[in-house]
Design brief:
The chain is of the alpha/beta class. The chain has a single domain (3-118, 166-213), classed as 3-Layer(aba) Sandwich (Rossmann fold), CATH 3.40.50. The chain has eight helices and eight strands. It binds BIS(adenosine)-5'-pentaphosphate (AP5). BIS(adenosine)-5'-pentaphosphate binds at residues 9, 11-17, 33-34, 37, 54-55, 58-61, 66, 87-88, 90, 94, 125-126, 129, 138, 140, 143-144, 164, 173, 202-203, 206.
Length: 217
């Protein structure tokens, strides 16, 4: 059976980390709207230029742009056998659009995994995150440091701090989550899809909880 999973949680909750672990360990392909939007920025595409204005300020990119981008990508064969959406949907309008998109394909979601992590811990995680310019591998200066500071263990690329991981923007992103994304949890609670998960502990400990909520594929 194909597993179709959504991960919802505040910035720094570990959505990307857990989605990558599901991809590696269960073969369910990750689709991250944050990564797609950052790639669009790097390519200098019109979507990337439009998205940058919102992302650098910690605001959400408008629904219509993100929904179109996800619909196009979900249509590719790589996601025919299931997917784990990381960072989408982030508004109730996006959640409804996803339901409609899947209904057109005769599909539905299997589980929506939400993560709860105290705000102080989220700030610690985000402020210490470093990403490789070469291969996008992720590190944390305290919890998961590279062997050589600022150098990627995997490809030797340079590590950088995301523009939106500076402290003033982190606060805004957390507020945006509370106001715009938390209602999505209620939407999926009503649909009986929500699996509320404790996001604290090591990444492996969190993954054990996540894996228990995802149907075998
Ligand atoms: P996006 O890239 O999705 O960022 P985010 O949701 O803010 O999430 P993050 O990537 O910051 O955190 P995460 O939960 O994935 O945690 P991670 O695993 O990386 O979006 C960026 C922007 O794009 C948005 O602000 C918005 O502008 C736009 N956007 C994207 N999607 C959109 C949408 N659908 N609609 C509108 N706009 C959209 O972990 C974080 C750190 O913690 C890492 O250093 C990691 O190593 C560490 N860590 C992870 N797990 C643990 C653990 N268990 N213990 C200790 N450290 C841990």
């Amino acid at each position: 059976m194909a597993a179709r999973v959504v991960m919802v949680g505040p910035p720094g909750a570990g959505k990307g980390t857990q989605a990558r672990m599901l991809q590696t360990q269960r073969g369910i392909h990750q689709l991250s709207t944050g990564d797609m939007l950052r790639a669009a920025q790097q390519n200098g595409s019109p979507l990337g230029r439009e998205a940058r204005r919102f992302m650098d300020e910690g605001k959400l990119v408008p629904d219509d742009l993100v929904i179109r981008m996800v619909e196009e990508r979900l249509g590719s064969p790589e996601y025919a056998g299931g997917f784990v959406l990381d960072g989408f949907p982030r508004t109730v309008a996006q959640a409804k659009a996803l339901d409609a998109m899947l209904a057109r394909r005769g599909e539905r979601l299997d589980a929506v995994i939400s993560f709860s992590v105290p705000r102080a811990e989220l700030i610690r995680r985000l402020a210490g995150r470093r990403v490789c310019r070469g291969c996008s591998a992720m590190y944390h200066v305290h919890f998961d440091p590279p062997a050589t500071p600022d150098v990627c263990d995997r490809c030797g690329g340079q590590l950088y701090q995301r523009e939106d991981d500076h402290e003033e923007t982190i606060g805004r992103r957390l507020d945006v989550y509370e106001h715009e994304t938390q209602p999505v949890l209620e939407y999926y609670r009503v649909a009986k899809l929500l699996r509320e998960t404790q996001g604290t502990g090591t990444a492996d400990e969190v993954f054990a909880r996540v894996a228990a909520s995802v149907p075998a594929s």
